[in-house]
Amino acid sequence: MCGIVGILGAKPVAEDLVDALRRLEYRGYDSAGVATVENGHLERRRAEGKLRNLSERLMREPLAGKAGIGHTRWATHGAPSERNAHPHMSENVCVVHNGIIENFRELREELTRAGAVFASDTDTEVVAHLISYEMRKGAEPVEATRNALGRLRGAFALAIIFAGHDNLMIGAREGSPLAVGHGDQQMFLGSDAIALAPFTDKVTYLEEGDWVVLHRESFEIRDRQGRKVERPMLTSQASGFLVDKGNHRHFMLKEIHEQAEVISHTLTNYMDMAAGTVRFPDLGVDLATVPRITISACGTAYYAGLVAKYWLERYARIPVEIDVASELRYREAPMPEGGLAVFVSQSGETADTLATLRYCKAAGQRIVSVVNVRNSTIARESHVVLPTLAGPEIGVASTKAFTCQLSALACLALAVARARGQLSEERERELVRALVEVPRHLTSLLRDERRYEELAHWFSKAKDVLYLGRGLSYPIALEGALKLKEISYIHAEGYAAGEMKHGPIALIDEKVPVVVVAPNDDLFEKTVSNMQEVAARGGQIVLVSDADRDSIGCEVAAHIRMPALHPFVTPLVYALPMQLIAYHTAVLMGTDVDQPRNLAKSVTVE
Ligand code: F6R
Hints:
Layout: E1 3-8, H1 14-24, E2 31-38, E3 41-48, H2 51-60, E4 67-73, E5 88-89, E6 93-101, H3 104-113, H4 125-136, H5 141-149, E7 154-162, E8 165-174, E9 179-182, E10 187-190, H6 193-196, E11 202-205, E12 211-215, E13 218-222, E14 228-229, E15 233-235, H7 251-257, H8 259-270, E16 271-272, E17 277-278, E18 293-297, H9 299-316, E19 320-324, H10 325-328, E20 340-345, H11 351-362, E21 366-371, H12 377-380, E22 384-387, H13 400-419, H14 425-436, H15 438-446, H16 450-459, E23 464-469, H17 473-488, E24 491-496, E25 513-517, H18 524-536, E26 540-545, E27 558-561, H19 570-589
Parallel strand pairs: 18-19, 18-20, 20-21, 21-22, 23-24, 23-25, 25-26, 26-27
Antiparallel strand pairs: 1-4, 1-10, 2-3, 2-4, 5-6, 6-7, 7-8, 8-12, 9-10, 9-11, 11-15, 12-13, 13-14, 16-17
Helix pairs in contact: 1-2, 3-4, 4-5, 8-13, 8-15, 9-13, 9-17, 13-14, 16-19, 17-19
The protein binds fructose -6-phosphate (F6R).
């Protein structure tokens, strides 16, 4: 993970580097650092913890160089401490790195034998020493870097500066994203276009194996074989993006509140509201005959995929295989000829999802991705991209991206259902109408947010919380549990309601809140039976349902009253109470809601 940035600027760059890092903090935030070339010397400042610690350090000890690199870290090798914070240096080379150098141990041994002295526990430091080693043998910086890159195995995006070279920066990409930003007599490198948005909207994305030599007035990209290559210069959409919480206390809350609007945008992209029909792009396969759909993703995005599986099977009658990306590839799942594979990702950079996409592509599948970040690697490597129009999601816990993923996937399910002759025009209009009403329901539910502040007092005292759901509500129960544990650090598990009696029921006692996601649909009666089993053992039920609490024949400790909804759209609306329970509990517990411990927004390591 980690975010990297580099600037060859017209004025001292330290402040701009920190500004860019602020936009990359979603990629990691356990330490940060910057370095510049100052009077020919490499000077760096690093700090453990959040970026503000680095900013404070720079106020006390400013940097004046006009060529510099910066890094915000999510620790992989070595504890999050100042000595392990990037940039890492040898005597004349300074480097920031996102990814993992897999062969760093053997390189470190070799370089130590050759006299290098290592000052950190990181894999990254070998890169600086390796380039220095090549330079000691007589190579100039560019040639030395090329030789060193040829010896690295693993995934990396690198930005490198050199002592004595105020107008030179080298970037390299192998498995981790890197964009070149083009300014007026200035050049930039960044993990994504958002980092570069304040400086330029002209970006070139490096491809796998590419490396770039930058001077203020020119740049040259070479591929893995060292051949000069041209990559397109794009105009990034990211420039309008402001890192701003508005009136909200946290980005997560702002993003929860944005859902009605961004779901509308996403739905509008995939439907003809006036006609009441889905308007879907050509996926390049015959949806009527495609033998199977494979879905893969990680975390919250996986739960969106799981909802899609239920939708596709029930409404389109098509077989769907789904697994988390870190498993699907390694179990070497066989892929059917002519199959469609769908990947779901907010960032579009998740390493496991990307690797599984490549696995499915190699197995001849048609690749469709549902992504939020337009020019991300997953988007670029897909045959067809279905964008979610959530806008930038800054809170590490996914909220609006999730419901936008559900919106796009719901339309996909309807498009497949129609193509397979499973959806009459009238039924399509009914389901489209139900989707169109989702934003209105969310807006009215948000008026009653105080309710969740009250509930949070109770949740914050719990050590364990269970979430139960059946059918389409099962993935929402899983998502509810994930949200709570990742931001409040309270242990929470989601289960299929019917599975309770096969083991988890042993956990129930009067101290365990049990959140039951139970819309009054065709499975409601079954879920009621499971609730009664919980109540009989003293479990404290939080019922999330449109049904009357009296209709369930047992005591409930709290009832979050939901509107009556079409069963098709319940996941989109029931996600909201899950998010609000987690958010208000975390706020009460005083955790870092937007940047919870040990996590990062974009997970670019396997
Ligand atoms: C949880 C969360 C993560 C992500 C997962 C995949 O709130 O955000 O579980 O959903 O890391 O990330 P993307 O969607 O970027 O592939």
